C-alpha cells in the first residue's frame, strides 16, 4: 500500500514538472515573438521616418498666382500639405528671399520633415511677370505725339525716368494705352499717363514727362579712311542724329562728301565736318604736267612742270619747259592743267 502511494506521488511530481517546463517554454516563445515584433515595427518606423525626411528645399520658387504655397518652397510632400497657402506672392517681376531661420519656423509650425543644413539655406520667391520695355513705351508715345501735331522723324528724352518700364502679371497681354497726354509745341515737352494692359483694365499706371528730339539724317563713313584716300558713294551710310547735337559745319549732303579726301584719318560712324576734308591733290610740286591751251578755235599742248600742289579747279603756277616761261593754269585732272584766253 505504501509502495503504491509512493509510485503515485512520484508520477504526480513528474507530471507537474513537465507541465511547468512546457509553461516556461511557452512564455519564452511569447517573449521572443514580442521582441521580434517590436524590432520589426521599429524598423518600419525608422524607414518611414527616413522617407518622411526626404522633403527638399527648392532653390527658386517661380510664382504665377497671387499667393505662394508650401509646395512652392519644398519638394517631396503630399498634395494636401503642399497645397497649404503661406502668404501673398511678391508683386509681378519682384523677388522675395526667405532665409534659413524663416524656413525653419515654417517647417516647425507646419510640422514639416525638414530642417536647414546651414545658415546659408534660403529660397528666392520670384513672381512671373510680363515686362513692357522702354522701346514699346516710346512707340506708343510716338503715335500719340504725331496725333498731337509732331511731324517728321523724332526721338524723345525722358526727364523723370531714365528708362521707363511697366510690369504686369504674366497672364496679361503686353499692351499699353495712353490715358492722357499734353504737348507744348513751343518747348516741345510732353507729359503723359500710360496704363497697361488697357484703359478698361488698368492693372498698372505710369506717368512720364519728356522732350521731343527731332532727328536729321547724316552721311557717315562705313569704315575709317586715311588722308589721301578719296571718298566714294559706296563708302557712305546714313545715321539719324538729334538736331541739337549737330554743329553748324557738319556735312549733311552726300555730294559734299563724295570726291573729297580727309586731312587726317576719319573714323567710321562719326559725322564729318567740312574742315576735316579737302579736295584730293591731283598735282604735286615738281610733277611733270601737260599744259593745254584753248582759245576756242584751236588747242595746243605743251610739256611743263608744276611749281605748286593743286586739286581740281585750283589755279596754280607752272613753268613751260620749252619756253622756260612761268604761267598760271587751272588744274583739270591728274597731271593736266589748262590755260584759257
Number of helical segments with 4 or more residues: 5
Please count the beta strands (DSSP E, at least 2 residues each): 23
Q: Regarding CATH, which class of the largest domain?
A: Alpha Beta
Give the overall form: elongated
Ranges with pLDDT <50 over ≥5 residues?
1-6, 40-53
Beta-strand percentage range: 35-45%
CATH fold descriptor of the largest domain: Type Iii Antifreeze Protein Isoform Hplc 12
Radius of gyration: 48 Å
Mean pLDDT: 85
Domain module tally: 3
Order of helices and strands: HEEEHEHEEHEEHEEEEEEEEEEEEEEE
Distance from N terminus to C terminus (CA atoms, Å) equals: 186 Å
Structural class of the helix and strand makeup? alpha+beta
CATH architectural arrangement of the largest domain: Alpha-Beta Complex
- What's the CATH H-level superfamily name of the largest domain? Antifreeze-like/N-acetylneuraminic acid synthase C-terminal domain
Percentage of residues in helical conformation: 10-25%
Largest sheet: 5 strands, antiparallel
Describe the structure.
With 341 residues, the chain is of the alpha+beta class. It folds into three domains: 72 residues, Sandwich (eubacterium ventriosum atcc fold); 150 residues, Type Iii Antifreeze Protein Isoform Hplc 12 (Alpha-Beta Complex); 60 residues, SH3 type barrels, CATH 2.30.30.760. Helices cover 24% and strands 37% of the residues. It contains five helices and 23 strands. The strands form eight sheets. Strands 9, 11, 12, 13 and 14 form a five-stranded antiparallel β-sheet that branches. The longest helix has 51 residues. It is elongated.
Amino acid at each position: 500500500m505504501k509502495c503504491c502511494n509512493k509510485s503515485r506521488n512520484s508520477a504526480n511530481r513528474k507530471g507537474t514538472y513537465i507541465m511547468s517546463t512546457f509553461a516556461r517554454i511557452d512564455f519564452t516563445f511569447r517573449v521572443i515573438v514580442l521582441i521580434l515584433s517590436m524590432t520589426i515595427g521599429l524598423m518600419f518606423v525608422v524607414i518611414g521616418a527616413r522617407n518622411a525626411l526626404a522633403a527638399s528645399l527648392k532653390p527658386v520658387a517661380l510664382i504665377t498666382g497671387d499667393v505662394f504655397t508650401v509646395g512652392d518652397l519644398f519638394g517631396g510632400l503630399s498634395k494636401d500639405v503642399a497645397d497649404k497657402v503661406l502668404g501673398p506672392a511678391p508683386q509681378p517681376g519682384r523677388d522675395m528671399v526667405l532665409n534659413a531661420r524663416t524656413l525653419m519656423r515654417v517647417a516647425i509650425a507646419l510640422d514639416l520633415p525638414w530642417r536647414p543644413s546651414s545658415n546659408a539655406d534660403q529660397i528666392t520667391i520670384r513672381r512671373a511677370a510680363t515686362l513692357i520695355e522702354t522701346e514699346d513705351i516710346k512707340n506708343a508715345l510716338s503715335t500719340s505725339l504725331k496725333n498731337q501735331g509732331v511731324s517728321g522723324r523724332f526721338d524723345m528724352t525722358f526727364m523723370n525716368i531714365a528708362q521707363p518700364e511697366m510690369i504686369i502679371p504674366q497672364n496679361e497681354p503686353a499692351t499699353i494705352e495712353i490715358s492722357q497726354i499734353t504737348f507744348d509745341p513751343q518747348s516741345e515737352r510732353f507729359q503723359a499717363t500710360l496704363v497697361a494692359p488697357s484703359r478698361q483694365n488698368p492693372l498698372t499706371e505710369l506717368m512720364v514727362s519728356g522732350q521731343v528730339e527731332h532727328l536729321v539724317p547724316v552721311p557717315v563713313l562705313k569704315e575709317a579712311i586715311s588722308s589721301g584716300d578719296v571718298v566714294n558713294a559706296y563708302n557712305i551710310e546714313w545715321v539719324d542724329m538729334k538736331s541739337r547735337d549737330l554743329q553748324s559745319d557738319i556735312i549733311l549732303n552726300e555730294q559734299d562728301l563724295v570726291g573729297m579726301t580727309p586731312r587726317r584719318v576719319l573714323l567710321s560712324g562719326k559725322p564729318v565736318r567740312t574742315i576735316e576734308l579737302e579736295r584730293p591733290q591731283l598735282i604735286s610740286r615738281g610733277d611733270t604736267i601737260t599744259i593745254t591751251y584753248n582759245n576756242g578755235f584751236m588747242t595746243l599742248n605743251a610739256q611743263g612742270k608744276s611749281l605748286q600742289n593743286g586739286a581740281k579747279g585750283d589755279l596754280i603756277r607752272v613753268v613751260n619747259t620749252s619756253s622756260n616761261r612761268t604761267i598760271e593754269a587751272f588744274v583739270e585732272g591728274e597731271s593736266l592743267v589748262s590755260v584759257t584766253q
